Amino acid sequence: MTALTMNVDDLPDDEFENAEDGAPRPWVPWIAGLTAAIAVFGAAWLALTLSGADRIREVQIEGMFERVPAAEIETAIEPFLDRSLANFDLDGTRAAIESIPWVSRARVERVWPDRLRLRIWERQPFAYWGDGELLDIAAERFRPEGQLPAGLPALSGPEGAETMVAETFRQLAARLAGSAFELVGLSRDRRGEWTARTVADVELRFGRNDPVLGLEVLLGPAQQALHERMPEVAYVDLRYTNGFSVGWRPTVPKAKSN
């Protein structure tokens, strides 16, 4: 756990030089050390010193952060800080924090007499979704800025199908792990057709039925027949009652030697 606090005595003198009659400014418009605190995987703490007896004197931020940008947290909460604790907009602050793409949810609490506590839960990525989006482990879609994490399965489907596709992929991936048909992706189109893709870049066509129902054929006769020829297989069509068909990759002609 990493803890960082800053009191008024720690602030540079020039923060107060421009105030009238030598009085301190109504509030300090910056959040010292937040970037450093959140960059470390652990709980981040922030102390923000404000003037006035009825003002919030400290903001405490807690959470396990890897991808939540420090600058976005600062931007989200800054407009709400210049008010008393009694009149603080808890719901507005929570909504602003939860608008950050990598934030799953947030909790904002008053701690009397002069402290605010923020608890932030970061999203855990589960899969790529469509073009440029991600699914978290709760099957909620979000679109983060910047580079996407590597090594996730590729899922897609129509609006509202996120949970169904994610859960179906979990079931298929668990059953096919270690087989010749280990999965890296799954999609469901608007007609209800299911298509999966394997580590070996083989397309699995399940049709409109529950893909789990095709596992018996896939792990039985299909794997037995195709195990040694997987590099030649383009797709396996499982849209049959008691069987399957195979599409083969184009044969590359061998170069003739002189």
Characterize this entry briefly.
The protein contains five helices and twelve strands.
What does this structure look like?
It is built from 5 helices and 12 strands. It is an alpha/beta fold. The chain has a 9-stranded mixed sheet with strand order 6-5-4-7-8-9-10-11-12, covered by helices on one side. Strands 1-3-2 form a 3-stranded mixed sheet, with helices on one face. 24% of the residues are buried. Residues 1-51 have low confidence and may be disordered.
Keywords:
258 residues, nine-stranded mixed β-sheet, three-stranded mixed β-sheet, 5 helices, 12 strands, 24% strand, disordered N terminus
Describe the sheet with the most strands. 9 strands, mixed
Unreliable residue runs: 1-51
Specify the structural class: alpha/beta
| Gyration radius, in Å | 27 Å
Helix/strand order, N-terminal first: HEHHEEEEEEHEEEHEE
Side by side, the strands of the main sheet go: 6-5-4-7-8-9-10-11-12
The percent range for strand residues is: 15-25%
User: How many extended strands?
Assistant: 12
Rounded mean pLDDT is 81
Question: Could you give the distance between the termini?
Answer: 70 Å
Shape: elongated
Helix coverage percent: 10-25%
Helices, by number, come to: 5
